[in-house]
Write a structure and sequence with these properties.
Blueprint (H helix, E strand, L loop, with lengths): L21 H6 E9 L3 E8 L5 E8 L9 H14 L8 E6 L3 E7 L6 H8 L4 H20 L2 E2 L8 E4 L3 E4 L6 E2 L18 H8 L9 H16 L9 H10 L14 H10 L10 H5 L7 H13 L7 H4 L4 H24 L5 H6 L5 H15 L27 H6 L2
Antiparallel strand pairs: 1-2, 2-3, 3-5, 4-5, 6-9, 7-8
The structure holds piceatannol.
Length: 410
């Protein structure tokens, strides 16, 4: 069966027996591992008929699997089938079921996870962040309009391709809510959990949580993209959870010095403890953060192109809505350019370089990048905030599902 000379024997380790999954093997040739979960493996695979590449998630649904069962995987499939038409959500292509495994075949996204990109570049510019967050909020709006909550949004579950085009993946915790339904289950990834999810499992009689948890996660993601470290972290997990529940985060670090007030304002409207006051995806998309300079410049150029012939002297005195609009756009552009310049401007003095080189954005990126390459994890920057936190996040599912998991949780 597996006669590909580029594949070693180990690469085929832990692949389901051919007899277990005849239908899948008849159509696809499995290749190298792209990622692993607790009870699943994602591999590249090739469709035999036309050699087109895909990614297959092979999920162990036997008794031994302590995170997955057939029903929950089939619920995930139902949701994936509903949402796959969105261009920024991973597309499900095929599903195969056998007694021990379920195979989910997806389009192949070659750029990897946003998480890996972030660890490589340390932090994203505001422009890149705007580009990523706009797509993310569009996806969340699309899901929430269908009453679907993702519940595990984080950079590991955002795949990228090309110039930061995103594909949201992993709908393993996603649910479709019935009218006004509230959720109680504790699931997600610690650093991205909304306060109400935690309160739900700590406070008896707490009503539950809803879609707003995804918007909190978006706030954590946006903060992390801009700063290169998460807003909530503490080496003691109990303190981390307390910080989350109190909404205790700040923009104090040197990495925030050259970031605009507009970006911080949007994050501040997302990381709001009371879910009723938190921004919805629609509100987030209308925030001034998305009134981009690029768009204004583009609009100005378009206007210049379609400029009408010079006016006659008699026309000059008249009120002209078009030229008033053009002048307004030009003024907005100029102000934004000026503001962007001021925000990014960094006065680099010998004193700063000597006393605190870490304050200088360019130097900070080099230090962080080198540290990561040398140590393989992030170097501690303080008691409360730590890049290593990025690497400690792994999903947890509710106590009610598995006693083992609940022990490790809270
Ligand atoms: C990759 C590359 C790729 C697709 C995937 C991963 C898909 C992951 C995925 C996992 C899920 C889910 C949807 C998508 O519900 O092309 O590294 O649990």
């Amino acid at each position: 069966m597996f006669e590909d000379p580029t594949m070693t024997r180990e690469m085929y380790d832990d692949l389901p027996e051919e007899s277990d999954a005849k239908e899948f093997y008849a159509k696809y040739e499995p290749k190298e591992v792209l990622g692993r979960g607790l009870s699943s493996v994602v591999r590249r695979c090739v469709r035999k008929t036309d050699l087109q590449e895909f990614a297959v998630k092979i999920i162990d649904v036997t008794e031994q699997s302590w995170t997955e069962d057939r029903d929950s995987v089939m619920k995930e499939v139902t949701i994936l089938q509903m949402v796959s038409r969105n261009a920024n959500i991973i597309q499900l292509v095929d599903v195969f079921e056998c007694t021990t495994f379920i195979f989910l075949v997806f389009e192949l996204i070659k750029g990897g996870e946003l998480f890996d990109y972030l660890t490589e570049v340390v932090e994203l510019s505001e422009r890149e962040t705007r580009f990523v967050m706009r797509q993310l909020f569009e996806v969340v709006k699309f899901l929430h309009d269908l009453n679907i909550v993702h519940r595990d949004l984080k950079p590991e579950n955002i795949l990228i391709q090309g110039k930061l085009e995103i594909k949201v993946s992993d709908f393993g915790f996603a649910v479709r809510l019935k009218e006004e339904q509230l959720l109680k289950e504790l699931c997600g990834t610690p650093g991205y959990l909304a306060p109400e999810v935690l309160k739900c499992s700590m406070i008896d009689g707490f009503a539950g949580y809803g879609k707003e948890v995804d918007m909190w996660a978006c706030g954590v993601i946006m903060y992390t993209l801009l700063a290169g470290q998460p807003p909530f972290w503490h080496r003691k997990q109990m303190m981390l959870l307390r910080n989350i529940m109190e909404g205790n985060y700040n923009f104090d670090g040197p990495e925030w010095e050259d970031i605009s007030h507009t970006s911080k304002d949007l994050i501040a409207h997302l990381l709001i403890v009371d879910p009723k006051n938190r921004f919805t995806a629609e509100q987030a998309l209308q925030h001034p953060f998305f009134e981009s300079i690029e768009y204004a410049v583009w609009a100005e150029k378009r206007l210049r192109k379609s400029r009408s012939p010079r006016k006659t002297p008699s026309e000059k005195g008249k009120f002209d809505a078009k030229s008033k609009f053009k002048a307004a756009i030009a003024a907005v552009c100029a102000t934004q350019r000026l503001q962007a310049g001021l925000n990014r401007q960094q006065v680099l003095t010998f004193k700063t370089m000597a006393e605190d080189p870490y304050r200088v954005r360019g130097i900070r990126r080099v230090i962080d990048g080198c540290a990561f390459r040398i140590y393989g994890h992030w170097v501690k920057k303080g008691e409360d905030q730590n890049r290593a936190a990025l690497f400690e996040n792994f999903p947890k599912r509710d106590a009610t599902k598995n006693a083992n998991v609940s022990k490790t949780w809270v």
